[in-house]
Amino acid sequence: MSHTYLIDLYQLIEQRKQEAEKELQTESSAPIATRLQQGRLDILTEFKSFLVQNYHHKLPRRIRSRYAE
After folding, report:
1. Predicted confidence band at 12 (pLDDT cuts at 50, 70, 90)?
2. How many CB atoms within 10 Å of residue 8?
3. Residues 68, 19: Cα–Cα separation, whole Å
4. How many whole angstroms separate alpha carbon 45 and alpha carbon 17?
5. Which residues contact 20 (CB under 8 A, 6 or more apart)?
6. pLDDT tens, position by position, 18-68
7. How far apart are alpha carbons 60 and 45 in whole angstroms?
8. Percentages helix, strand, coil for the chain, rounded to the nearest 5?
9. Cα angle at 24 between 19 and 30, to 5 degrees?
10. Exposed, middle or buried by CB within 10 Å (0-12, 13-18, 19+), for 63?
C-alpha cells in the first residue's frame, strides 16, 4: 500500500468522523439517527485502529507522528 494512499485514508476517516460527530450533536431528538451516527463513529474508529496496527509502520518516519492514535 502506498503511503500517500494511507495518508488519504487517514484524512478521509477524520473528515467522516467530524461529520458524524456534527450530525450526532444536531440530531439529538431522533434515537434511530443517534444510534446510526454512533455506529458510524464506532466503525470509523475501529477501521483507523486497524490501519494503525497493520500499516502505520509503512509511513515515512516524519509523517508517522501526525497520524498516531
Report:
1. very high
2. 11
3. 20
4. 8
5. 37, 40, 41, 44
6. 999 998 888 666 788 888 889 999 999 999 999 888 888 887 777 777 766
7. 22
8. 85, 0, 15
9. 135
10. middle
